[in-house]
């Protein structure tokens, strides 16, 4: 089986839309499968976009569309959705090279659907590594993105391709950048939303260096983790569907009609 570069990288990001003004983003239910792509370019993720729902503490999109003026830069602090970083290795048959990537998903809260995914690719024998991100839809693509470790010098990256459930973006880096990631505390990712406001996502880097330099995960263990995660996400989606159904008015029991007005004498 060909080694897929995107396998295991942020499978559950879906339909996240950045809003204008003070709105950070609206978050959607997970897609059915994880995205996968060959080495040359990412293919469309095998995912079905779901109806977007506002993240906890964020107004819905309709509120943001009511003429709110841009309010300047916005920072969104994200938390890991998994217990640790995952390192996956395999052979990319197209390039005939051994490739490893170290990845993790992040969200506003640990029990919510991912908003951003980070993967750092290391191709055996190559001095250049790739920092690849899966970011929400609804961003301005032409400016690309900037990323920095703690208070370090920002580096630039470009969007590669977008799908209904997210956009892939990447930047080629050298060894010193990898060293910064290993030693750093926070990674910042700056993008611009639909109205031109800068939004900076921050994600913790604790444990990245150990995972990057350590052994890869056993493929069977990874498969079991993915199955468990998928089952959990499906359960959350079903619970949310039931909650929304229960909140709907009971169409089968309409409210009683108002009594007729008494006849005039």
From TrEMBL:
Q: Which organism is it from?
A: Methylocapsa palsarum
Keywords associated with the record: Signal
Q: Where is the composition biased (Pro residues)?
A: 256-265
State the residue spans of region: Disordered.
34-80, 227-265
Question: What is the recorded name of this protein?
Answer: Invasion protein IalB, involved in pathogenesis
Q: Where is the composition biased (Low complexity)?
A: 34-73
Per the UniProt entry, the signal peptide is 1-28
Query: What InterPro entries does this protein map onto?
Result: IalB_sf (IPR038696), Invasion_prot_B (IPR010642)
User: From start to end residue, where is composition biased (Basic and acidic residues)?
Assistant: 227-248
């Amino acid at each position: 089986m060909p080694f897929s570069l995107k396998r295991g990288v942020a499978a559950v990001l879906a339909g996240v839309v950045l809003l204008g003004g003070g709105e950070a983003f609206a978050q959607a239910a997970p897609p059915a499968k994880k995205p996968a792509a060959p080495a040359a370019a990412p293919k469309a993720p095998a995912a079905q976009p779901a109806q977007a729902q506002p993240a906890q503490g964020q107004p819905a999109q309709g509120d943001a569309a009511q003429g709110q003026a841009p309010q300047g830069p916005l920072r969104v602090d994200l938390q890991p959705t998994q217990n640790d970083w995952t390192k996956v290795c395999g052979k990319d048959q197209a390039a005939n090279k051994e490739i490893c990537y170290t990845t993790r998903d992040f969200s506003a809260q640990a029990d919510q659907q991912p908003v951003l995914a980070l993967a750092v690719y290391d191709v055996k024998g190559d001095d250049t590594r790739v920092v690849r991100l899966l970011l929400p839809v609804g961003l301005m693509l032409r400016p690309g993105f900037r990323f920095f470790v703690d208070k370090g010098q920002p580096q630039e990256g470009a969007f590669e391709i977008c799908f209904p459930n997210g956009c892939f973006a990447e930047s080629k880096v050298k060894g010193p950048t990898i060293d910064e990631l290993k030693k750093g505390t926070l990674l910042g990712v700056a993008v611009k939303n639909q109205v031109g406001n800068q939004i900076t996502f921050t994600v913790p880097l604790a444990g990245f260096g150990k995972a990057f330099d350590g052994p890869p995960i056993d493929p069977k263990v990874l498969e079991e983790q993915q199955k468990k995660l998928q089952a959990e996400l499906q359960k959350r989606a079903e619970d949310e569907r039931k909650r929304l159904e229960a909140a709907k008015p009971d169409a089968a029991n309409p409210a009683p009609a108002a009594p007729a007005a008494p006849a005039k004498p």
